[in-house]
UniProtKB/TrEMBL annotation:
Stretches assigned to coiled coil: none
Subcellular location: Membrane
Transmembrane spans: 21-37, 49-70, 183-202
Amino acid composition bias (Basic and acidic residues), ranges on this chain: 264-278
Family, similarity comment: Belongs to the CALHM family.
InterPro entries, per the entry: CALHM
Keyword Transport: yes
Span list, region Disordered: 258-278
PANTHER family linked: CALCIUM HOMEOSTASIS MODULATOR PROTEIN, CALCIUM HOMEOSTASIS MODULATOR PROTEIN 1
Membrane topology field: Multi-pass membrane protein
Record's keyword terms, sorted: Ion channel, Ion transport, Membrane, Transmembrane, Transmembrane helix, Transport
Protein name: Calcium homeostasis modulator 1
Amino acid sequence: MDKFRMMFQFLQSNQESFMNGICGIMALASAQMYSTFEFSCPCMPEYNYTYGIGLLLIPPIWFFMLGFVLNNNVSVLAEEWKRPTGERLKDPTILRYMFCSITQRSLIAPALWVSVTLMDGKSFLCAFSTNLDIEKFGNSSFIKEMSETERTRLLARIPCEDLFEHKELRVAATRYIKCISQACGWIFLLMITFTAFLIRAIRPCFTQAAFLKTKYWSHYIDIERKMFDETCKEHAKSFAKVCIHQYFENISGEMQSLHHHHSGKDGGGDEEEDKRSDEERLLGIRAQDDMNKVLWNWHTCKPALALRKDQMDDKNNSKLTGKINEAFNGFANGHTHGTEKKEWAVYYSKV
């Protein structure tokens, strides 16, 4: 369990690497699913095109949606988009950056599925076998005697080896369509690679300040949500612990006092320290209504992103103020508390 917990904490702290790993796993899963998938073309003119194009497009759409489902930033994006403005304004560029980042990762597995499908050519053959000009592939004199409906049914059987009698025509037609399918696959890969190259090459040409700003605040939103969830979890744990302790103290006071009498020498100090730490973790919120109000205010009116230095240096300022007051009171009373006295010697000379 400790190993799994350490692994989970590592993945949480390195969410970007974790999401890249998930995208890689999904891409490998898409290729493995296609290799294990049993392709069965219906070999009917009414369903060949639907089956072939559906096999080419529907699984990528499913992988694309699955990429959004597995990405934790989708909920962060939705919350940031739908939250009330309050004291913190919404920045559309941050929302666009987060959406583009999620979309880029979700497109990896669909792109791999389309590429593998086009390179294999089976779905392309099933979808477009009825559009072939069979006379180009050998002796097709028997087709001239057929009606248009019979010819369409015959061409629809080309993907099915058991149903098409003329082997030479089938092999030639299959190679022709697979060649076109592979050409489309390479064009698709070239377009994707060229688009990624343009994105990487053009982005440095624009100002980096806007990009760094959107990247920083998108990371901030994600980290803020995680820290808020962790703080709420710690507060709930401390709240439950204090509530349970108070319940048992009120119900069984005598048993509690007897327990303190027997174990007060052994761990009384530790128990008091635990209670003190739990009280500090409550942060002054000790009622259900107060906690509900805090959570509601956090949702409806998040604090502005402007930290005040006086709150951060409150302790240092209080210490400095105390020293100044002590020195002032000492001079007012005719003595200095702990201040060093300096002696001055004056010499007069008669000329």
